[in-house]
Amino acid sequence: MEKKIAVILGDGIGPEVTQQSIKVLNCIAKQFGHRFIYNYGLMGADAIDKTGSALPEETITTCLDSDAVLFGAIGHPKYDNDPTAKVRPEQGLLQLRKTLQLFANIRPVNTYSSLEHLSPLKSQQLQGVDFIIYRELTGGIYFGKKEVNADYTEASDLCSYTKTEIERIAHLAFQSAQQRKKKLTLVDKANVLETSRLWRKVVQEISKEYTDVTVDYLFVDNAAMQIILNPGQFDVILTENMFGDIISDEASVISGSLGLLPSASIGVSSALFEPIHGSYPKAAGKDIANPVGSILSAAMMLDHFKLYEEANLVRAAVDWTLNSKFVTKDIDPVNYYFTSTIGDLICDYVTEKIPSDVN
Ligand code: IPM
Ligand code: MN
């Protein structure tokens, strides 16, 4: 199989973790006889420094001309505390999501028994945790009309949703639930927000087409609590853009490290794969960042290409490194391996250089 992959290394640790994914993808290509062609594009603070724009036109063209996009991370501290900055790195990612119509952001959350001690939750709460968040990605308050008055004493962000925007992600979430534990939880704030009431109405209607799926409704404040108290109750969580942003970071700590979580953003005809962590500027260039979130995102990309055996092999390789204590500094601050070494080890496993009795 031949696939064109647009690569956006981005900011901070983005380049070094994404390079490990490319290394692993190349090993997979070699092992299974595929050809992956990489075309690089700029985005974020890196793009602003080099071109003045957070998302240069060429990057959009490169992405539109590819079968998938592999993305690292975005953000630089110099913009975070400057509310009046005219261009911001994050605008690049938001604009790319909108342009490629990446309306569904999929974030799986599971646990690894070898990392239980790192989770802030008790081992008993971690049993059976395996859920997936479907976060709407191109609507809501992120993309509504934004206004500030002339003397900057008042500002507003509009949250709006259409029935169609809700329907398209709801169908994906229901279909996912059908393949899993057949439970869907809609997270909203329907006791307060009109948009949330629309979500409930649309989801109630759609649920009639998926009678094998049990539907639950939770207010977001309660959901935030339940994710910590009893994460094992969830299967598929469906939610709007900003609630999904917040609860997915919350959920990520369950696994033990934010650095482990992958994501896929699926659109009408494009798809983008990125770890859920940020650019972690303090670790940039030190070869200490955890590449697993990016590598598992690459595995989700292989799934998207319907290369299921290849994707499962990458996941098995990641499991093997974690169980063998080949981990980065975020997981073991004393006996840790470098980012690039983890990439090498995962490649060794993929190319069967690891004797099977080590498993
Ligand atoms: C994420 C990030 C982005 C978001 C930022 C960088 C714009 O936090 O992908 O979760 O809020 O969506
Ligand atoms: Mn986020």
TrEMBL record:
Q: What's the catalysed reaction?
A: (2R,3S)-3-isopropylmalate + NAD(+) = 4-methyl-2-oxopentanoate + CO2 + NADH
Q: How is the cofactor bound?
A: Binds 1 Mg(2+) or Mn(2+) ion per subunit.
Task: Tell me where in or outside the cell this protein is found.
Answer: Cytoplasm
Q: Which GO terms describe its cellular component?
A: cytosol
Q: Where does substrate bind?
A: R97, R107, R135, D221
> PROSITE patterns under this entry?
IDH_IMDH
Q: Give the pathway.
A: Amino-acid biosynthesis; L-leucine biosynthesis; L-leucine from 3-methyl-2-oxobutanoate: step 3/4
Known EC number: 1.1.1.85
- By its UniProt entry, which SMART domains does this protein fall under? Iso_dh
**Per its UniProt record, what SUPFAM superfamilies does this chain match?**
Isocitrate/Isopropylmalate dehydrogenase-like
Note whether Nucleotide-binding occurs among the keywords.
no
Q: Where is this site: Important for catalysis?
A: Y142, K189
Leading EC class: oxidoreductase
Name of the protein in its database record: 3-isopropylmalate dehydrogenase
